[in-house]
């Protein structure tokens, strides 16, 4: 079974505060006890983009196992995390929790779930105002074009062999959509897998100026025919 390397970033100043104050940090203590995680690569006091951080990990762990790119507000709750990641990556080259098999840049806003409802796949639980609820998007496992970046996993060796990296034009928003599109171009498969997490956010982008700026850059890079 391949090892699992968790890659993330946090605004917390130290690893101690990361473990004490973030959903991911708290949940990693459990996953370490369950032996689901082999290494943890977290950038603390973060002031750079996720794409840059993730690319450093791809280069550093070029042949070391499974890279799990995950946000620090995600709690990893699955007791079979390592087993499921290994299973999922036997079927797909990149695994996520929620995504779509159809998508067009002609529809605005440019979010993965602005796509036909029947093309959706996966499920994610969210914690909002102290209450946890689960959203079932659609059947899984399922081959997708795009998956959400809150949780993405891939075999480090396959990423290295394909030469794929995250586009560092995107600091936080749209890095996941860009990565999936580039994976598609390189004939890497993307799909969803049933893994239990709780995301401490509803994923609302509408009040973010940074999101809209990233959307503009994404349109410039990928045009209108994606």
Task: Describe it.
With 226 residues, the chain is α/β, with parallel strands linked by helices. Helices cover 32% and strands 26% of the residues. The strands form two sheets. A seven-stranded mixed sheet has the order 2-1-3-11-5-12-9, with helices on both faces.
User: Roughly what is the average pLDDT, rounded to an integer?
Assistant: 93
CATH names the topology as Spore Coat Polysaccharide Biosynthesis Protein SpsA, Chain A
Structure classification = alpha/beta
Integer count of domains = 1
Strand content: 25-35%
Count the DSSP helices: 7
CATH architecture: Alpha-Beta Complex
CATH superfamily caption: Spore Coat Polysaccharide Biosynthesis Protein SpsA, Chain A
Percent of residues in helices: 25-40%
Q: Could you name the ranges where pLDDT drops below 50 across 5 or more consecutive residues?
A: none
Number of beta strands: 13
| CATH C-level name | Alpha Beta
Distance between the termini: 36 Å
| Rg over alpha carbons | 16 Å
| Helix/strand order | EHHEHEEHEEEEEEEHHEEH
Question: Sheet with the most strands?
Answer: 7 strands, mixed
In which order are the strands of the major sheet placed? Answer: 2-1-3-11-5-12-9
Shape: globular
Main attributes of the structure:
226 residues, six-stranded mixed sheet, seven-stranded mixed sheet, 7 helices, Spore Coat Polysaccharide Biosynthesis Protein SpsA, Chain A, globular, alpha/beta
């Amino acid at each position: 079974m391949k090892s699992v390397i968790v890659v993330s970033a946090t605004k917390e100043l130290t690893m101690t505060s990361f473990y004490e104050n973030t959903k991911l940090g708290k949940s990693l203590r459990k996953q370490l006890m369950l032996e689901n995680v082999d290494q943890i690569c977290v950038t603390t006091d973060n002031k750079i983009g996720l794409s840059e951080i993730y690319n450093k990990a791809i280069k550093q762990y070029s042949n070391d196992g499974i890279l799990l790119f995950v946000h620090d507000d995600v709690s990893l709750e699955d007791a079979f995390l390592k087993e499921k990641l290994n299973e999922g990556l036997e079927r797909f080259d990149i695994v996520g929790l929620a995504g779509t098999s159809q998508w067009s840049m002609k529809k605005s806003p440019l979010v993965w779930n602005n796509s036909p409802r029947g093309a959706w796949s996966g499920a994610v639980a969210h914690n909002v105002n102290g209450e946890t609820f689960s959203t079932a998007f659609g059947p899984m496992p399922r081959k997708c074009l795009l998956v959400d970046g809150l949780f993405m996993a891939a075999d480090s060796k396959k990423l290295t062999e394909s030469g794929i990296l995250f586009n560092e034009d995107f600091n936080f928003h749209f890095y996941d959509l860009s990565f999936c599109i580039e994976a598609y171009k390189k004939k890497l498969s993307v799909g969803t897998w049933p893994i239990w997490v709780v995301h401490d956010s509803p994923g609302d982008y509408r009040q973010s100026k940074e999101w809209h700026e990233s959307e503009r850059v994404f349109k410039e890079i990928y045009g209108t025919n994606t």
